[in-house]
Write a structure and sequence with these properties.
Elements: H1 2-8, H2 10-24, H3 31-41, H4 45-50, H5 59-70, H6 77-87, H7 89-106
């Protein structure tokens, strides 16, 4: 039974492992770590109550999904702080460079697809 359960969750196991590997590569004083630390420190309860399934995994669809989640009334202070952070082009430029560097080192790129 354990082997079957492991086999059935292999995709999820690999996704978690890839996220762990990505996070392990982020320098401690980086902008990328700063925003992930902020996101992880935020309370998830209100976000989970508002979240809706993403139906379009294209770049434009992901943007629309994110905006529908985060650009509305009633954001928590933590959520607003995340939006303010990512609205600062210096923050995002640095985080993008750091993220691309990790992609280059790992030869991996995160992509999203609808859950089957």
């Amino acid at each position: 039974m354990v082997a079957t359960k492991y086999f059935l969750n292999t995709d999820e196991i690999r996704q978690i492992q890839m996220l762990m590997a990505l996070l392990l590569c982020i320098p401690p004083q980086s902008k990328l770590r700063e925003i992930f630390d902020k996101a992880l420190a935020a309370s998830e309860s209100q976000t989970l109550n508002r979240i809706k399934p993403c139906t379009d995994p294209s770049i434009a669809g992901l943007r629309d999904w994110f905006e529908s989640l985060m650009v509305q009334e009633g954001l928590t202070p933590e959520e607003q702080s995340l939006l303010d952070w990512q609205s600062n082009s210096d923050n995002m430029s640095a985080a993008i460079k750091e993220f691309i560097s990790i992609q280059d080192k790992t030869n991996l790129k995160i992509s999203f697809q609808p859950k089957a």
